[in-house]
Amino acid sequence: MSFLEKIMIKYKTPQEIEIMREAAQIVSRTLGLVAKHMKPGVTPKFLDKLAEDYIRSQNAIPGFLGLYGCPSTLLISVNEQVVHGLPTDRPFQDGDIVSVDCGSVYKGYYGDHAYTFEVGDVKPEVKKLLEVTKECLYLGIAQATIANRIEDIGWAIQQHAEKHGYGVVRDLVGHGLGKELHEEPQVPNYGRRGRGKKIQNGLTIAIEPMINMGTEKVKTLDDQWTIVTADGMPSAHFEHDIAVVDGEPVILSTFDFIYESLGK
Ligand code: MG
Ligand code: MG
Fold this sequence. Notes:
Helix content is 31%, strand content 25%. By secondary structure, the chain is of the alpha+beta class. Strand 11 and strand 12 (227-229) form a beta hairpin.
């Protein structure tokens, strides 16, 4: 692959977008299944097996497993873990928050999205972090129109998070999505109004705010995977897959299966 090909955005046809919707929906249903089991005493490894079996039952394959050496189907990040937590045998405890990130490949295209769950009774200030991070996600999505540029997405996310005194993670970003999990362009969760590449029809991206209650700074644990906040305070992460169609953002993934499982 030439350098120019690597930096080129791969705009998708309506047919490709329909396949990507199916890939995203497989992940959505997987997270719906995960939601049913998100209780104190359940282990990340149990959820990981559940997710792998479900994805394979849908004529898809786990999107993360084996990619960059990833050993699991899900990335499960608890409390101060931001993203990329590897599933362990440590049971969830009452009051935990748990980000579950999941990928699938269906007919050669990736789905990739994430939700941060509450386990049992979560402190009000932590609930607020989850609420605001989810709002950030939808505010970012709303900017993904052909009237705007890529940094408008991060600008909206950053404004909202910082208004609440939260830290916006800089070291990890959203991304283009398609036949590869990570395509161009990068989609940072911070930015300046009116900067970056112009948004065009056929753009397919994963928007994924990672918002910390305290400092924006993060570090990587010795397992070389798990990203944690530098100050040990909680972090939240929500992600959707988006296509730009007829000038407007279309959300290919859904949290509806999660809400159904949680009785929301
Ligand atoms: Mg993800
Ligand atoms: Mg992603």
